[in-house]
Design a protein that fits this description.
The protein is of the alpha+beta class and 243 residues long. It has eight helices and eight strands, in the order αβααβααβββαβββαα. Strands 1-2-8-3 form a four-stranded antiparallel sheet, with helices on both faces. Helix 1 (2-16) runs antiparallel to helix 5 (83-108). Bound molecules: cobalamin and iron/sulfur cluster (2 copies).
């Protein structure tokens, strides 16, 4: 079953646009793992459990679609997000949704039920928090640790996007890092803090509303692309792209 899932996701990503993406990462967690209950405290009490998405849930699956180096490099300089970064964001949201839809169809044929949520735009605009946080779910599935930029840094970096799904079939879990927060090699370099154009990471608590305003300001620069609240300057440092 894992082979079927992994071949499907990997093929869809490599077919999508070889100049934008690298090979995806895929991880699994038992749906009844206590970490999902802890997300009701860590993220907020609105955070759903796998069984809320799919009664009879057995496994949670997360995948990461990592960007190519050119996309990361192209977004590093200046204050505004690059057009390529914005375009890649929009394409990747669609790709993740298509992968989930296609995987669901494939798994139905094997008698497996699946549920999933869109990669973004499913969050509370006041709290700026989701009721299903893909990066936390991806942590649970062993895909990485959180850096000082608050992004999940995978073995391929943090520049990319996550998709997650809940399945009603038991699959062997992936090993999960014991520490939640760690920059690669335990080296915090401050690049993200210095690079943030609005100083959102330079404070005791992440200034998520200032970050969001910057993302919205970038959105208005790209009227040719629908819904691109992006910035990602903090996702262009040494932890952004890992080979
Ligand atoms: C709301 C939202 C935003 C908000 C708030 C961001 C935020 N940090 O939460 C705004 C609009 C500001 C935003 C901006 C961006 N976003 Co955004 N956003 C989301 C969304 C919809 C929900 C995030 C959420 O609920 N956060 C909840 C809070 C609690 O997260 P947090 O405070 O960072 O969590 C910390 C604590 O929980 C802490 N912690 C403390 N104790 C414990 C214990 C445990 C066990 C754990 C696990 C954690 C933990 O660790 C965490 C990290 O420090 C998700 C999509 C989704 N539905 O999941 C995308 C998402 C988080 N965004 C993403 C991205 C890429 C971005 C941007 C780079 C924009 C861009 N694409 O150009 C910036 C980066 C900003 C930043 N440095 O974080 C990606 C993250 C990829 C990654 N590698 O992690 C996501 C997952 C979308 C996706 N499908 O991939 N985003
Ligand atoms: S840019 Fe440096 S400090 Fe920031 S998360 Fe990445 S490794 Fe950590
Ligand atoms: S996405 Fe931009 S505004 Fe938000 S924390 Fe990162 S660098 Fe700062």
């Amino acid at each position: 079953m894992k082979k079927l899932i992994e071949e499907f996701i990997t093929k869809r990503v490599s077919d999508a646009n070889p100049s934008i993406y690298r090979k995806p990462l895929i991880g699994y967690s038992p749906a009844d793992d206590e970490i999902f209950t802890s997300l009701k405290t860590v993220v907020g009490e609105q955070h759903l459990l796998p069984v809320d998405l799919l009664p009879g849930a057995k496994t949670v699956l997360a995948f990461f679609v990592p960007y190519k180096k050119s996309i990361v490099d192209g977004n590093r300089s200046g204050v505004s997000a690059s057009w390529e970064w914005a375009q890649t964001y929009a394409c990747t949201n669609n790709l993740i949704n298509e992968i989930c839809r296609g995987l669901n169809e494939l798994l139905i044929g094997h008698g497996v039920k699946m549920a999933w949520l869109f990669p973004t735009y499913n969050f509370d605009k006041e709290k700026l928090m989701a009721d299903w946080s893909h990066k936390h779910v991806a942590y649970a599935c062993g895909l990485g640790q959180f850096g000082r930029n608050h992004l999940l840094i995978t073995s391929k970096g943090c520049a990319g996007r996550f998709g997650t799904a809940v399945l009603d079939v038991p699959l062997e879990p992936s090993p999960r890092p014991e520490t939640v927060h760690a920059c690669p090699g335990n080296k915090s370099c401050d690049f993200c803090i210095k690079k943030c154009p609005v100083g959102a990471l330079n404070q005791a608590k992440f200034a998520r509303h200032e970050c969001y305003r910057q993302c919205q300001a970038n959105d208005s620069l790209f009227p040719d692309i629908e819904c691109v609240e992006v910035c990602g300057k903090c996702s262009t440092g040494p932890c952004a792209y890992i080979e």
